């Protein structure tokens, strides 16, 4: 480091500058460490500013030299580990901390806590819950027990955590809106195209309540479930979510979500992209009435005869590549829309239908069906091994199958179960064919298909919540705690997907989480920590987020400074 004298506006300007050699270009670079000001102004404070700051620079160089000197650490080979001591701490969460503060979540939680006379720090608790949900998902009790895994202030109790869950849930809608506005301002969020889907989470309980109700489980379980509707932008970052009782039909969840978004999120015309479960007459009518658009998948096997004939008719298809073809048409369709009297009114809409065939999807459909076929053939030969629950997926391929309404057991009848070959052949005809219906008649077929394929991002998000974030709150029973748990998972998902975006989507969320978990170190002696992991992800974090996780040895003070820097946004 040295004192630099430059000319600015015709006057002498002093700065402390650090010179270094770029490791890539090998060229000498300069970085201003501290801007001091104009010499004439400094002369009013110091008798000899140049002499004074040359002494300051000399002392800074001495301190840097001392810091860079090799350190000798002694240890006792016979020393044993202490069970209560946190022998290993994580530093990878610094990347999460950076995004947490870029989204101004600390400010939000601080302001929200002001309305409560809490004896605990809401921000510190929420950081622990959110970071742990990403890196080491567990029960709230287990998370609390592992709180010393991070270099954070954890001066709160387990009871404080549960009290915090109760306090945070009234802020559910405001927190989601806050995240949306931060995303829009700092990362350029686009909402001209949004993706929507519904999944559910089961609870291993016997008694139902207002939220946890028995319904159509995505995992084919008999337990009560909670429905979650999730809205996502084109980059795969969640916009908002809402929870619905488990017995709520998928299609009826879109309207309240869109209503909330339109009212609070300053969103103009949007094209809603969703799977066939959302493709209802009411949702189509809602999109049209609100001035929005839609891109929905349409079931082929569940369609009418006219649609099936059109799909199988090979005229009109354009061969795009080997095993891939497309065709489309503008088609006037009659839909039955719910009216205020509780009945339905038939309405004609003009929409575009895009049909495509993929040989790869054809093979996948047959491969996916094969386990059910094998089970169905075994069921025919060994019906006593099965009941209504265990025969799921296979029963439709078996004729003469009768279940006891009370027990679900297969009943013995005069006609023995036989394999339904005709059913199988009827299904196979449509393997590889997909239909998309849309209001966007001016867009090309390829554009519509590409838009629809973006749905994989929301499916991936659900996969992340269920597997990596372990969203299903097994250990919570109170309704407000369950609601707060889902809110924490939502924030965690936003941060996790945003981190993937910051790394140019080169790495999946599970892979990023694995790398961050490995970025941990052990205490040596005298506040020195040794770290033993680096990879291309930590290097990318250093490049994109300016967080250096590549140092092998760090003093506690250096670690605290690194983490403090993640809060300066």
Task: Please supply descriptive tags for the structure shown above.
about 575 residues; alpha+beta; 18 strands; elongated
Short description:
With 569 residues, this protein is an alpha+beta fold. It contains 19 helices and 18 strands.
Polypeptide structure, described:
Among the domains are: 66 residues, no CATH class; 80 residues; 140 residues, no CATH class; 54 residues, no CATH class. The protein is elongated and about 105 Å long. The longest helix is centred in the C-terminal third of the chain and has 24 residues. Helices cover 39% and strands 22% of the residues. It has a nine-stranded mixed beta sheet, with helices on both faces. With 569 residues, the protein is an alpha+beta fold.
Mean pLDDT figure: 88
What's the number of extended β-strand segments?
A: 18
C-alpha-based Rg, rounded: 30 Å
Strand order of the largest sheet: 7-6-5-8-9-15-12-11-10
Oligomer: single chain
Number of helical elements: 19
Q: Quick one: overall form?
A: elongated
Give the terminus-to-terminus CA distance: 26 Å
């Amino acid at each position: 480091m040295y004192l630099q004298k430059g000319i600015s506006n015709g006057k002498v300007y002093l700065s402390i500058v650090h010179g270094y050699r770029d490791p890539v270009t090998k060229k000498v670079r300069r970085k201003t460490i501290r801007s001091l000001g104009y010499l004439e102004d400094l002369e009013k404070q110091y008798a000899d500013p140049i002499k004074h700051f040359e002494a300051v620079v000399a002392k800074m160089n001495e301190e840097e030299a001392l810091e860079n000197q090799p350190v000798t650490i002694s240890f006792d080979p016979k020393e044993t580990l202490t069970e209560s001591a946190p022998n290993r701490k994580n530093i990878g969460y610094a990347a999460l901390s950076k995004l947490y503060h870029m989204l101004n979540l600390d400010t939000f939680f601080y302001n929200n806590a002001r309305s409560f006379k809490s004896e605990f720090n809401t921000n510190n608790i929420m950081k622990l819950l959110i970071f742990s949900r990403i890196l080491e998902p567990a029960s709230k009790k287990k998370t609390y027990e592992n709180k010393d895994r991070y270099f954070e202030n954890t001066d709160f109790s387990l009871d404080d955590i549960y009290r915090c869950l109760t306090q945070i849930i009234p802020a559910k809608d405001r927190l989601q809106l806050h995240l949306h506005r931060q995303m829009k301002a700092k990362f350029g969020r686009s909402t001209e195209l949004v993706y929507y889907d519904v999944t559910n989470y089961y609870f291993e309980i016997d008694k139902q309540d207002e939220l946890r109700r028995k319904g159509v489980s995505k995992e084919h379980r008999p337990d009560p479930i909670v429905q979650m509707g999730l809205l996502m932008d084109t980059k795969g970052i969640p916009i908002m979510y809402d929870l619905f009782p488990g017995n709520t039909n998928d299609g009826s969840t879109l309207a309240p979500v869109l209503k909330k978004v339109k009212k609070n999120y300053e969103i103009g015309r949007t094209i809603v992209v969703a799977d066939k479960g959302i493709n209802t007459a009411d949702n189509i009518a809602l999109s049209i009435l609100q001035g929005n658009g839609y891109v929905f998948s349409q079931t082929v096997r569940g369609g009418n005869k006219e649609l099936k004939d059109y799909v199988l008719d090979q005229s009109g298809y354009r061969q795009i590549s080997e095993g891939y073809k497309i065709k489309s048409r503008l088609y006037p369709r009659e839909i039955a829309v719910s009216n205020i009297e509780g009945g339905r009114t038939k309405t004609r809409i003009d929409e575009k239908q895009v049909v495509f065939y993929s040989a790869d999807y054809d093979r996948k459909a047959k491969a996916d069906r094969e386990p059910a076929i094998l089970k169905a053939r075994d069921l025919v030969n060994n019906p006593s091994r099965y009941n209504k629950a265990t025969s799921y997926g296979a029963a439709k391929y078996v004729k003469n199958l009768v279940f006891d309404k009370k027990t679900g057991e297969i009943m013995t009848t005069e006609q023995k179960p036989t394999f339904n070959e005709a059913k199988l052949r009827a299904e196979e005809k449509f393997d590889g064919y997909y239909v998309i219906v849309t209001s966007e008649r001016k867009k090309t077929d390829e554009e519509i298909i590409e838009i629809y394929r973006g749905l994989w991002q929301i499916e991936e998000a659900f996969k992340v919540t269920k597997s990596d974030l372990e969203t299903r709150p097994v250990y919570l029973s109170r309704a407000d705690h369950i609601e707060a748990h889902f809110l924490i998972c939502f924030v965690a998902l936003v941060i996790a997907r945003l981190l993937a975006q910051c790394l140019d989507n080169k790495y999946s969320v599970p892979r990023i989480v694995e790398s961050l978990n490995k970025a941990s170190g052990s205490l040596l002696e005298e506040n020195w920590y040794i770290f033993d992991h680096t990879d291309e992800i930590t290097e990318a974090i250093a490049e994109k987020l300016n967080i250096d996780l590549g140092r092998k040895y760090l003093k506690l003070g250096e670690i605290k400074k690194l983490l403090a820097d993640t809060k300066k946004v």
